[in-house]
Design brief:
Blueprint (H helix, E strand, L loop, with lengths): L10 E7 L2 E6 L3 E6 L20 E3 L7 H10 L2 H10 L1 H6 L6 H20 L8 H7 L1 H18 L7 H14 L5 H21 L1 E2 L5 H19 L11 H7 L1 H15 L7 H16 L2 E2 L1
Antiparallel strand pairs: 1-2, 2-3, 3-4, 5-6
Length: 289
């Protein structure tokens, strides 16, 4: 993905619509170029005016040329630009890399969300509460994107659309293009908070910084489990002292370990010790029931 055609000598391979063409550059290969009127009246072999190009999408491991052609020939230019504008605060903050995959995922979601709204179709967003509590920054961004759609297109989206948009942002930080693992992760974090609350007899305020910090630890734990890179040695010698110093937190961590191992790999003792320390810290910042 790029904002400019630069000095490349693009030639049209295929006109997708008035605002999108498949083009080839001798050095860069094939790519889909977007721009207002870029394909109007153009033909095979015609040069592309670099000044008319607003976005360049190149094939990669996740997006083949046919896939890009299919998606971008059906997605309005205004939707892609809207997705890019919505992601501008994310770019500016620099905490999350705005990749081609993220931009296309957001554009795809916005396209169907706008279509649903125009048709009066309402869909269920079952993770709305969990996402709001566990990912407050991402949820704020999702709501900003929803407002941007209304400002630019005059289409009012259901508030729940901010939930899925937020999950796309979470997914960009911790996973690939598939949103399903992020949904499973969110549900699992909610279950873990319930287990910890029950074992320790505390009331976890999901909007508090302590809960957000604990959720972030869990998210990185899931990444380590997924990648097979568990902590294996740095805390192993401290497992017994930690268990003796924090018996309730260790019991809660052991319950969490059992929950995670139902559908995942076994946690190392070092991960268990690390999890115990985070649970103990969470408990120290929460009120008893």
């Amino acid at each position: 993905m790029s904002d400019s055609a630069g000095a490349r000598a693009w030639q049209i391979v295929r006109v997708l619509n008035n605002n999108a063409v498949l083009a080839r550059d001798r050095d860069a290969g094939q790519a889909v170029l977007l721009g207002r009127g870029i394909g109007y009246g153009r033909h095979l072999g015609d040069p592309v005016d670099a000044g008319s190009v607003s976005e360049i999408f190149v094939p990669d491991a996740e997006h083949s040329v046919p896939g890009l052609v299919s998606f971008l020939s059906e997605t309005p230019l205004e939707t892609v630009r809207l997705a890019s504008e919505a992601l501008e605060p994310v770019r500016a903050q620099g905490r999350v890399a705005v990749s081609q995959s993220l931009l296309l995922a957001v554009a795809d979601h916005l396209r169907f969300a706008v279509e649903r709204s125009r048709r009066g179709i309402v869909v269920d967003h079952p993770l709305r509460w969990e996402v709001q509590q566990l990912y407050p920054e991402e949820t704020r961004w999702g709501r900003q994107a929803v407002r941007l759609v209304e400002d630019c297109l005059g289409v009012r989206l259901d508030d729940g659309e901010a939930t899925t948009l937020a999950l796309h942002l979470v997914n960009a930080q911790f996973a690939g293009s598939d949103l399903a693992p992020t949904v499973r992760m969110t549900r699992t974090i909610t279950q873990i908070l319930g287990v910890v609350s029950a074992v320790l007899g505390i009331q976890v305020d999901e909007q508090a910084m302590s809960a957000a910090r604990f959720a972030t630890h869990l998210r990185y734990l899931f990444v380590r489990l997924e990648d097979g890179r568990q902590i294996s040695d740095s805390l192993e010698d401290l497992v017994t002292p930690i268990r003796q110093a924090q018996p309730l937190a260790f019991r809660a961590a052991s319950r969490v370990r059992a929950l995670l191992e139902v559908n995942g790999p076994c946690l190392t003792d070092a991960e268990l010790a690390y999890l115990t320390l985070h649970i103990a810290r969470l408990a120290s910042e929460c009120q008893p029931r």
